[in-house]
Design a protein that fits this description.
There is one protein chain. About 50% of the residues lie in helices and about 15% in strands. With about 850 residues, it is an alpha/beta fold. Strands 7-10-11-4-1-12-13-17-18 form a nine-stranded mixed sheet, with helices on both faces. The protein is globular, with a radius of gyration of 28 Å. About 45% of the residues are buried. The structure holds ligand GL7.
């Protein structure tokens, strides 16, 4: 039963309803009130963290008011909602974004100043919400921003991890992982202790017949864990629409602990049960593009899918509509295969609980779900062992077998001549043990499947899903090239540039329509504009240089060329190619006369990124970078000609400092391996150029900015197979310059060579799977071209302005519109004009 205030009392409610601050005076009232009452502190014990808390709570009040209005308005609009299911939401900080979207940043700046604080220092107090690994999680965060900005009724569903991605510390050149307990103070979440779902694991299946003779299946006697909802408001930019991100937290179903056990003296057992339940949402798995098949991970996935589906179905049932209307009210996007269990779960709800027939239930499921693939790397494709699923989710395994049976019968009818087809496309891989192929289940259960950049979407059709294109037809497969939110990645991260752009484009409309950037091309020759553009880049480099000094103790000259590669450390992303190139440069510099060295283009090579804790090769790469940094930075001969920096603990808030400061950024994956990349877009949008391979979104960036404005190198994806084959049968072709690099590493130039032998040997002795040897020469040559190009600062500046003007395509707003039209078939709900305060 919904509690609602009776009509006669509503007037009183309206009169007293929460007021929003509008002036800096009112803002200060709110901050001080929160510090004094919510935090129980005073002007005698308030530091910057207290001022952050007060500011965040003041803005939160405003957000909550809009959030409530939005939810009411969307419910009465009775339109289809989008549910974005993602195990990762890499949100970063919320305060700056809240200030921007609420539109009160100047008011807050003035208020804080009057209270004795600097806005930038206050923003800096916030800890990142780091519930993600990398691109996939950050994409989900950009999508939430765009969904709200475009007024789509949309909810994110995820897990509320107690520990986000670990904090990285570098100790003696090695990565150490430190837990990220980020919840100490999180004003942005609202625990909903009244919104809970009981989720079952293990248990048994019972078939029975009802009075009318109908067959039923019951799943029972399992272990129950309770999901508690924690909600966070997601404000849109330039609109009052404030959507919801709902994250589930796990707890023991009987509350704190089991009193029967407690009273009978089994105190420890009772606590252990509680802890076991809480473990489910305790920690984010820190693997980027790798499937480890751990039972706890499967538990996380089911726990989150079951809670979310229950919630979605509960909301739908309130509308009292017929089940056939479900797909008109609900679109569920599966962010990778992680939420694929939602497919058998919805079938289970519809058939076992709601009593629908299979065919009707299946048709609803297919119309409701769509699936985004984010990688073709075989080690990332999820498979779960059948015995594991059988034990944990016995009813779901039956349903998966039923889906498979129907599907294979269909295939058999349509492709009677292709006998191998059945085993190739079966959801169940006939291995020892048998495995459930989650990607196949996701494809079969969805009406649309998309890749995240053109090349990637083509590749999935010709490789991993080739047979499914034949079976379902090509229309099921589509492309939605990734994008980024210009609010965070331009306006927030690079305010001066945003301001300059706005001054030329007549305001900030471009933040809602990034294609307007093209008008900047009119200013490419404008002297004052050029000067200001260049000054801004320099100021951003200076800011990064200061940060490098403070964080890493390394002095770098901001006039040098800043060359940046920041992303998860992975062999396919080829940080090893980059560091080998740096070593090559160092060796060349060493051989030069001092006079020639002076003439060389000074460069700072900046790296950042985390390695998965169990990924030894990635950790070795980090170690090598740090050792090279140690040697090069302390070599008196070299001076400013080359500096090497490894920035500790790369994350979203650090990216906001790093991205605007690049001259060149590196996106140099082996062709065909990086599905899209999204930081490539962020760097270019901030006036940095790219050195990159013909991979992922680099290709579309090239199409947009023009071949002259990007530095491409290396082999093409269509040649990768042959090259690998050639390595195997005829050996490698190692360029002397690369051989020289290997020799110096093996001779101990960067410390005990033994530590790096696995890395060097992976190339020289173990097939060089990622084609480092094939691409090294063209990489180094392209870096030379960059040195030359950078010397002509005027031409360089023209290029950097031009590329910014041509980045309009890469807004995540454009992607969301494509998803809405091509995949979700959904319309925005425009919020009504804002009522007056108290009205
Ligand atoms: C990724 C891709 O590797 C990356 O190229 C892409 O930009 C991102 C978002 O679509 O998804 N796939 C993946 O498994 N991870 C990614 O970052 C972890």
């Amino acid at each position: 039963v919904e509690a609602s205030v009776p009509e006669p009392q509503r007037e009183a409610w309206r009169k007293h309803s929460a007021r929003e601050f509008n002036t800096s005076d009112q803002f200060e009232d709110a901050v001080v009130r929160h510090i004094e009452t919510t935090l129980a502190r005073s002007l005698y014990n308030v530091d910057e963290s207290g001022a952050y808390a007060g500011t965040a709570l003041a803005f939160r009040d405003r957000l909550v008011i809009e959030w409530n209005r939005t939810q009411q308005n969307q419910t009465s609009a009775d339109q289809k909602r989008v549910y974005y299911l993602s195990l990762e939401f890499l949100m970063g900080r919320a305060l700056d974004n809240a200030m921007l979207n609420v539109g009160m940043k100047d008011v807050a700046r003035k208020g804080l100043d009057e209270l004795g604080f600097r806005m930038e220092d206050i923003i800096d107090q916030e800890r990142d919400a780091a519930l993600g690994n990398g691109g996939l999680g950050r994409l989900a965060a950009c999508f939430l921003d765009s969904l709200a900005t475009l007024n789509y009724p949309a909810w994110g569903y995820g897990l509320r991890y107690r520990y986000g991605i670990f904090r990285q510390e570098i100790v003696n050149g090695y990565q150490m992982e430190v837990p990220d307990y980020w919840l100490e103070f999180n004003p942005w979440e609202f625990p909903r202790h009244d919104v809970t779902v009981d989720v079952q694991f293990y248990g048994t299946i019972r078939k029975y017949m009802d009075d009318s003779g109908k067959q039923h299946t019951a799943w029972e006697n399992g272990e129950i864990v309770t999901a508690v909802a924690y909600d966070a408001p997601i404000p849109g930019y330039g609109t009052t629409t404030t959507n919801n991100l709902r994250l589930w937290s796990s707890k023991a179903s009987h509350g704190e602990f089991d009193f029967t056990k407690f009273n009978s003296g089994e105190y420890e057992a009772s606590v252990a049960d509680t802890q076991r339940a809480e473990t489910i949402s305790a920690v984010l798995y820190p693997n980027d593009s790798l499937d480890r098949g751990k039972e706890l991970r499967l538990k996380q996935q089911y726990f989150w899918c079951a809670a979310s589906l229950f919630d979605i179905v509960r909301r739908f049932k309130k509308s009292k509509k017929a089940w056939s209307d479900f797909p008109n009210q609900v679109a569920i996007q599966l962010n990778d295969t992680h939420p694929t269990l939602a497919i058998p779960e919805l079938l289970r709800i519809l058939i076992d609980i709601e009593g629908l027939e299979w065919d009707e239930a299946w048709s609803i499921v297919q119309k409701t779900f769509s699936y985004t693939n984010h990688t073709v790397l075989p080690e990332a494709l999820e498979k779960w062992s059948v015995p594991l699923v059988q034990n944990l989710l016995p009813r779901h395994l039956q349903i998966i077998y039923d889906i498979n049976l129907q599907f294979l019968q269909f295939v058999e009818r349509n492709f009677p001549k292709d006998r191998d087809m059945l085993s190739r496309v079966s959801i169940i891989e006939e291995s020892q043990p048998k495995m459930v192929r989650m990607a196949y289940l996701a494809v079969i259960g969805s009406h649309k499947v998309n890749g995240v950049a053109e090349l990637h979407s083509d590749l999935i059709k010709t490789t991993i899903f080739k047979d499914f294109v034949k079976i379902h037809g090509p229309d099921k497969f589509t492309n939605v090239t990734n994008g980024i939110t210009p609010r965070r990645w331009l306006h927030q991260a690079n305010f001066r540039l945003s301001e300059l752009i706005a001054s030329k484009l007549g305001g900030y409309d471009y933040l809602n329509d990034l294609t307007l950037l093209h008008k900047l091309e009119n200013y490419v020759d404008d002297k004052d504009f050029r000067k200001e553009f260049q000054d801004i880049k320099y100021a951003n480099k200076l800011r990064l240089a200061r940060y490098i000094k403070e964080a890493q103790g390394i002095t770098v000259n901001p006039a040098s060329l800043f060359d940046i590669q920041v992303k998860r450390i992975h062999e396919y992303k080829r940080q090893q190619l980059n560091i080998f190139g740096v070593i090559h440069r160092y060796l060349e510099l060493k051989e030069m006369s001092p006079a020639d060295r002076k003439k060389a283009q000074p460069r700072v090579s900046i790296f950042g990124g985390k390695a998965a804790p169990g990924y030894w090769m990635a950790k070795t790469i980090i170690h090598l970078i740090n050792q090279v940094s140690e040697v090069v930075n302390n070599d008196k001969d070299i001076g400013d000609a080359l500096k090497v920096v490894f920035l500790e603990d790369y994350n979203v808030s650090k990216a906001e400092i790093i991205v605007p400061a690049s001259d060149i950024s590196e996106h140099i994956s082996t062709a065909g391996t990086e599905a899209s990349g999204t930081s490539n877009m962020k760097f270019v949008l901030n006036g940095g150029l790219i050195i990159g391979t013909c991979d992922g979104a680099n290709i579309e960036i090239t199409r947009e900015v023009g071949e002259d404005n990007i530095f491409l190198f290396g082999n093409l994806s269509e040649d990768v197979e042959d090259l690998r084959h050639a390595h195997y049968y005829s050996g490698l072709n190692i360029d002397p310059s690369l051989q020289r690099v290997f020799d110096e590493i093996r001779n101990g130039m960067f410390g005990d060579a033994g530590q790096f032998s696995s890395l060097v040997n992976s190339i020289t002795d173990h097939g060089d799977y990622y084609l480092v040897s094939d691409d090294f020469k063209s990489y180094v040559e392209t870096q030379k071209l960059i040195d030359e190009a950078y010397k002509n600062q005027e031409e360089w500046l023209t290029k950097t302005i031009t590329v910014v003007a041509r980045m309009g395509f890469f807004s995540s707003d454009r992607c969301i519109e494509e998803y809405a039209q091509e995949i979700w078939n959904t319309e925005p709900v425009v919020p009504p004009a804002k009522p007056q305060n108290g009205a």
